[in-house]
Amino acid sequence: DPPVHALKGIHLTIEKGDFVALLGQNGSGKTTLAFHLVGAEKPTNREATIRVEGLDVLRAPLSQTVRRINYLFQNPANQLFCQTFGQEVTFGPQALGLSPSEAKERGRAALRQVGLEPFWDYYTLSVLRSTETLLSLASVLAMDPQILIADEPTGGLDHATGERVMEIL
Q1: Whole-angstrom Cα distance, residue 122 to residue 67?
Q2: What does the alpha-carbon distance between residue 83 and residue 102 come to, in Å, rounded to a whole number?
């Protein structure tokens, strides 16, 4: 099989405050583009450049990239790995260098924003898909990124939760 050029010749400018949807059929490169924007994948073309808010995503440490741009996975189970809701929403802020008390404050605020603050001590294992989605959204919001890319954020959700997610975004 010949090599696949998933992304070629893309020039994309999105202004601050824009809410953008990338549409296309399965396999058209939407998730690949998102992974490149957040630095999770690197282009094979050595001449390629990816700049987000002036940051060179290809050369910047991931710790700098996630402060500017972050990613909400299509399947929230792929994003969650801590034992409790509280641990989940404080992990990212602590990894960014915030103190435990600052991380807890941000985590509580993020859980409050998605309607899950009462679940701080609950275990993340075996929760409903809608709860997983809201928790994964809260874990990203707690890091306070300037840009958030959400991959099919309402996929598999009931109507009410889907609307809530879109309101938060």
Answers
A1: 27
A2: 20
pLDDT at 6: 73
Would the CA dihedral through 139, 145, 150, 153 be positive or negative? positive
**pLDDT tens for each residue of 38-83:** 888 888 888 888 888 888 999 888 888 888 899 999 899 899 999 9
Task: For residue 126, name the pLDDT band (cuts at 50, 70, 90).
Answer: confident
Q: Please answer whether residues 157 and 130 qualify as being in contact, where contact means their C-beta atoms are separated by less than 8 angstroms.
A: yes
What average pLDDT does this structure show over 90-117? 97
**Which tokens go with 123?**
């275990």
CA distance 140 to 92: 7
Contact 82, 104 (CB under 8 A): no
Give DSSP secondary structure letters for the chain: -PPP-SS-S------TT--------TTSSHHHHHHHHTTSS--S-TT---EETTEETTTS-HHHHHHHEEEE-SSGGGT--SSBHHHHHHHHHHHTT--HHHHHHHHHHHHHHHT-GGGTTSB-TT--HHHHHHHHHHHHHTT--SEEEESSTTTT--HHHHHHHHHH-
